[in-house]
Specification:
seven-stranded mixed β-sheet, Aspartate Aminotransferase, domain 1, 12 helices, alpha/beta, Aspartate Aminotransferase, domain 2, four-stranded antiparallel β-sheet
């Protein structure tokens, strides 16, 4: 399936593989690309990144006998929502060995300039990888053209593989000779995989970063979804996605003025700076989110005050976006949100 997914991320077919889970893939890639020395022994991340990534990075530092408080460096956000590329670049110092950043920030929906950041990292001799869980399937990527070292992502958001569905990863072909950080039998040469010899002979592709047998039942639905994306074309889907998010922002501005309804947009308004979702902020976001779910809308709450709204271009219509805004209006007009507890369910 890597061959089908490769066009979505702008890669050669053999540079992409469907395998594992997001965090397992991150561990394997960091174990491969983070080889600290006395001069370069820090990992650069950002304070708005998905917490699971931070857990993994701290774990990898400890494996190397390093102190996460000293060797994990964070780029600070100026407003708690967004990151500025110039701030990230300023943190690319001589002691940084590896950079891990999101393609799209999971709360605000900001799209980072991955091409620029890759160029600046390489100018300083630093390897860079991206967590594209919130961008693959919503935004075109050009990993090979940008010369990104590696990337990883889940397939259960925009790519419809369902909760816990098999994830994906990309490794630039220039790194195919690297020692695999966490080798397993599924990363062996595919034509000799069942020879069961003691010496590991890696696959000459991104498949070398597979560890265990792929979960066939969880991966099967992904193939059907990828075929639809292949037919629709990611460039066309991006055009519709930007129209959809722009329309949603317009309706919120026009029909839900902040002074009356308390809603604020936490996503960049410039189309080129946002991914496929809109971060809607409100002091009662938790309970409004619960009310939306009760009405049959499927949003997503993120602490402390964000409702993530993703008008997925493959199947969400403009009429449905209009209906969503009517729901947001009525929930506040009638104070319907007050019927719900100020406590989040295990799944937001």
């Amino acid at each position: 399936m890597g061959k089908i997914q490769a066009p979505l991320v702008g890669a050669e077919p053999y540079e992409v593989i469907v395998t594992g889970s997001t965090t397992v893939n991150l561990h394997n890639l960091v174990a491969t690309f983070f080889q600290p020395t006395s001069e370069r022994n820090k990992i650069l991340a950002d304070e708005l990144n998905f917490p699971s990534d931070i857990y993994a990075l701290k774990s990898q530092l400890r494996i190397h006998g390093l102190d996460p408080d000293e060797n994990l460096v964070f780029v600070k956000s100026r407003d708690g929502r967004l990151l500025e590329e110039e701030d990230i670049i300023s943190k690319m110092t001589e002691d940084v060995a590896l950079i891990i950043l999101p393609g799209v920030l999971y709360r605000s929906g900001q799209l980072l300039d991955m091409a620029l950041l890759t160029k600046e990292a390489h100018n300083r001799g630093i390897a860079i990888g991206f967590d594209c869980s919130h961008s693959v399937g919503a935004v075109p990527h050009y990993f090979s053209q940008w010369d990104v070292d590696f990337a990883f992502w889940c397939n259960y958001k925009y790519l419809n593989n369902g909760p816990g569905g098999t994830a994906g990863l990309y490794v630039n072909k220039k790194h195919f000779a690297k020692e695999i950080g966490l080798a397993g039998w599924w990363g062996y040469r595919k034509d000799k995989q069942f020879d069961m010899v003691p010496e590991f002979e890696r696959a000459e592709s991104a498949g070398a970063w597979q560890i265990g047998t792929i979960n066939m039942l969880s991966s099967a639905p992904l193939e059907g979804s990828l075929r639809m994306y292949e037919e629709a074309g990611i460039e066309h889907l991006r055009v519709k996605s930007l129209k959809a998010t722009s329309y949603l922002i317009y309706l919120i501005d026009e029909l839900l003025p902040e002074e009356k309804y308390g809603y604020k947009i936490g996503t960049p308004r410039q189309p080129e700076r946002r991914g496929g979702h809109v971060a809607l902020e409100h002091d009662e976001a938790l309970r409004i989110n619960a009310a939306l779910k009760k009405r049959g809308v499927m949003p997503d709450f993120r602490y402390p005050n964000v409702i993530r709204l993703a008008p997925v271009p493959l199947y969400v219509s403009f009429h449905e976006i209009w209906k969503l805004v009517q729901h947001l209006k009525e929930i506040v007009d009638t104070k319907e949100y007050e019927k719900f507890a100020k406590k989040s369910a295990p799944v937001a």
